[in-house]
Amino acid sequence: MSSNDDREQRHNQRMARKKEVVDAAIAAATDKRGVLVVNTGNGKGKSSAAFGMVARALGHGQRVAVVQFIKGRSDTGEEAFFQQYALQQPERLVWQVCGEGFTWETQDLARDQATAAAAWQVALRYLSDPAYDLVVLDELTYLFKYRWLDLDAAIASLQARPPLQHVAITGRAAPEALIAAADTVSEINVVKHAFKAGIAAQPGVDY
Fold this sequence. Notes:
46% helix; alpha/beta; 6-stranded parallel beta sheet; 207 residues; Rossmann fold; 8 helices
């Protein structure tokens, strides 16, 4: 047997063993219920990953609600794309920008707190409605960081949602209690970012 044949045989044996492990894990995962997904960390792409879930859910014919808690701008590519979809199929997608920008931009603590509280009430409507298969709470973690929203009460509301409803939460510095309550947590860390090199934010890449 040549060295190439021997290498191929060993590879095939490894892949066969790996397939057995993967197939067994898939067979054991029989529970079907709504999951709580948290995308956190200082890196770029937390919201983008959640919006990818929006596209995925819509592709499966599901109903989706997106609530943005901090972002005040309305010129993001995601919003432009999905708002067009919402206009065509409003029964399938709701996209609500409830924030007025980051607190260092507004410089009005009382207004920021009131805006956050109002946005959470909007979110609660969707979190209590079993007609929505996926609810995205974009940048919700900042409300916990600034203590504009009670963490324990929010987690209780998340846990009381309809049993088949999925929720995706994004934002930096997700609190430990939220991480513990979540089913899937991804920490996106920054290695390099063009902004640090003086490159301006650009449409299609950054917003």
